[in-house]
From TrEMBL:
Keywords: Cell membrane, Membrane, Transmembrane, Transmembrane helix, Transport. It is found in: Cell membrane. The keyword Transferase does not apply. It comes from Ileibacterium valens. GO terms for cellular component: plasma membrane. It holds the Pfam family MatE. It is a multi-pass membrane protein. This is MATE family efflux transporter. GO terms for molecular function: antiporter activity; xenobiotic transmembrane transporter activity. The chain crosses the membrane at residues 26-44, 64-88, 109-133, 145-164, 176-201, 207-227, 248-274, 294-311, 332-357, 369-387, 399-418, 424-447.
Length: 463
């Protein structure tokens, strides 16, 4: 959809039409703010790790690391639910159905808040039992609980911000969320230092700093939409229950939420065997996972851009354009991953030391081993992320969910049979093996997907 600039409106905040123009240029321009947004979000999450490592030591770092998989499971369910809702919104926007878009926004607000509240209550009831089930070490159990309980209480904030930003991206605006995150990232670092150093709140202060930063992001995002994007804001009538639309939204939301949760559940199971390896290994693994999340930002951002791109083009019936965008994204993901492999092999120990703030050789060797065994397989990870998200954006739900089930089953098998024999080395090779299997599985079904097949579009993975 073309957008006419209003008086005083910067071209940076212009909605981008993903259904017209050079697809390569459009995808990259749309993905750049997403990358910077993810970079800043990861930056202030990583700032927690760095500040905790330097100011509170290895024990506190291990306390956060021990619940990282649980954090990803809970938050991933909520954000996955919101991403599913945004897919429907992007399809409406691509079809130039603005009334339908606003109706989707109104219903999505109600559904996402309900999901967040229910999940938050359940987590607070069973949280201590979950941490014990995860075999969280007794010397960090209380610290881990104090951190993750604050995150669980504030799930409605995380969900609301991600929904707001997701709806902006569905309408072709990926820049406003970037600027908002930049502001809140700086605030988060300030709050981390304030709560930990000045108020002596420990790891709990880190959790509160993250939530308050997200709350600021949410408030600014809502104000931005009210002032500059009024055409995207739902009216009171859009909040009236629509059972047919709610069913469609719930199915898509739960599809992506379960996909994300199943993946995170596998990581949670794997975290159990990591937690019994010892505090220093947990610390090294935590630092390495943070580094890995940073290195995956470009392909993850491209995946997010591809989601809106495919959804809008499917809504606009531009099927060939959608297919070409997927192939282009896969090529970029592979090129990037190969470059990162060379860099990590040269600098892994130094990177782990910088992120963790530790000089303990066991911490550094653990983090370096994880990176060197995982990064070479990033080409498979990049392609599988693109294919899985693209299928979701075509409203093909079963295959992406089943691929996540494969990942869960793989992590369970490694946890039960491989890791007890090989130790931490088995942990390091768990995900690469699963990425290869999932990539082949998704490629098989993507090449035969009914959306492109019905319209005579020849599917290609790379070219």
């Amino acid at each position: 959809m073309n957008h006419v600039l209003k008086k005083g409106e910067s071209i940076l905040f212009k909605e981008i039409s993903l259904t017209t123009g050079s697809l390569k240029k459009v995808l990259l321009i749309f993905a750049l703010p997403l990358f910077l947004s993810q970079l800043f979000q990861t930056f202030y999450n990583t700032a927690d790790t760095v500040i905790v490592g330097y100011c509170l030591g290895d024990l506190s770092l291990a306390a956060i690391g021990a619940v990282t998989a649980l954090f990803e499971l809970v938050v991933g369910f909520c954000t996955g639910f919101g991403q599913g809702l945004a897919v429907i919104a992007a399809q409406k926007f691509g079809a130039k159905d603005m009334d339908g878009y606003r109706k989707v926004v109104g219903q999505s607000i109600l559904l996402s808040l309900a999901a967040a509240i229910i999940l938050s209550v359940l987590m607070m009831i069973f949280l201590k039992d979950i941490l014990i089930f995860m075999k969280t070490s007794e010397d960090i159990l209380d610290l881990s609980y104090s951190y993750i309980s604050v995150i669980c209480m504030g799930l409605w904030i995380t969900v609301s911000y991600n929904l707001c930003a997701g709806m902006l991206r569905a309408a072709g605006d990926s820049t406003a969320p970037l600027v908002i995150l930049l502001i809140s990232s700086i605030l988060n670092i300030f709050l981390d230092l304030l709560f930990i150093i000045s108020f002596h709140m420990g790891v709990t202060g880190t959790a509160w700093a993250t939530l308050l930063a997200q709350l600021i992001s949410l408030i600014i995002c809502v104000i931005w939409m009210l002032v500059r994007k009024k055409e995207l804001m739902p009216s009171l009538s859009d909040f009236k229950l629509d059972l047919s639309l709610d069913q469609e939204l719930t199915m898509m939301g739960l599809s992506m939420a379960f996909m994300s949760s199943i993946v995170s559940a596998g990581s949670l199971i794997l975290q159990i065997v990591i937690n019994v390896q010892g505090t220093m290994i947990v610390s090294g693994h935590t630092a390495a996972r943070k580094i890995s999340s940073i290195l995956m930002l470009p392909p993850a951002s491209l995946m997010m851009a591809l989601s809106s791109f495919v959804a809008q083009n499917i809504g606009a019936k531009e099927y060939e354009r959608a297919e070409k965008g997927i192939a282009f994204s896969n090529r970029l993901a592979i090129y990037y991953s190969l470059a990162m492999t060379a860099i990590v092999y040269l600098l892994s120990n130094w990177i782990v030391a910088t992120i963790s703030g530790s000089s303990n050789s066991e911490v550094l060797d653990t983090g370096s081993l994880y990176l060197r065994t995982n990064i070479p397989f990033y080409p498979f990870l990049g392609v599988l992320l693109n294919l899985r998200m693209s299928l979701q954006s075509m409203s093909i739900k079963a295959v992406p969910i089943f691929s996540s089930v494969i990942e869960l089953a793989g992590k369970v098998l490694f946890t039960l049979f491989i890791v007890p024999v090989t130790g931490y080395l088995g942990v390091c090779f768990t995900e690469p093996v699963i990425w290869i299997v999932m990539c082949l599985f998704l490629a098989f079904f993507y090449l035969r997907n009914p959306v492109f097949k019905e319209h005579g579009i020849r599917c290609r993975i790379f070219s």
